[in-house]
Fold this sequence. Notes:
With 285 residues, the chain is mainly alpha-helical. It contains twelve helices and no strands. Helix 2 packs antiparallel against helix 8, helix 3 packs antiparallel against helix 7 and helix 9 packs antiparallel against helix 10. The longest helix has 28 residues. It starts with a helix and ends with a helix. The mean pLDDT is 82.
Amino acid sequence: MTALFALLTSFLWGLADFGGGLLTRRTPALTVVVASQSIAAAVLGVIVAATGGWSEAGPRLWFAFAAGLVGPVALLSFYKALALGPMGVVSPLATLSVAVPVGVGLVLGERPGLLQVAGIAVAVTGVVLAGGPQLRGAAVQRRAILLTLVAALGFGAVFALITEASTDVAGLFLALFVQRLTNVAVGGAALAVSVRRGGAAVPDGGFPWSSLPALAFVGLADVAANGTYAIAARSGPVTVAAVLASLYPVVTALAARGFLSERLRAIQTAGAGLALLGTLLLATG
């Protein structure tokens, strides 16, 4: 169950990142974040009301609130780092986020077996290579590295926090709803500040209403991935769940190959293969 839900998490996050990347080519990133998360929050609100999730309110929701505060900061740091580039360095470096939940698992007493340790090492190496690291000729600004590390720490913290935000399915829906509401509030505030400073909230042609289905998909895929990760981390070792859930860059790269006909570099193909091998080692360990 842990491997199944963690791999589903990677699939959903990979597709969400792919869709979000396409949308930000035409619409400001902050607007994409706020709009997609608002749709997800609205859907979750209906689910919580229908399932009686409000009865699960308790102190654990502070973990969801914290995840909602950290998530947008991490995402915006990541976008800014990508803008400074080079992406071939920034994107693979962001996979260091897996160190946070793995570290939490080790602190809590988890001790993966030798085969699982090998699987973790192989899978993480594969994910880094699948991002297409730029090994030569990369002029990297110190600010880009710093922003990427902030993003990685933030993404990892969200991994760890959302796991602690609930104990059952009804509580999980409520936790995800609180997280999304917080995301929207933080993202909306950042968007307001950006507009006040002269930034654009919508493209020159106005809000792209035709993109609503894509925005809904990105928001719902992202929230579903948070949910499947929480289930994966609670049904088995966090160290295994976190590593398998971090394979999403492979999914994004393959989606770009399939939908945009982007050619994978040899190093990315090798990375995808190593990620698959690491997954098999973890699943059999």
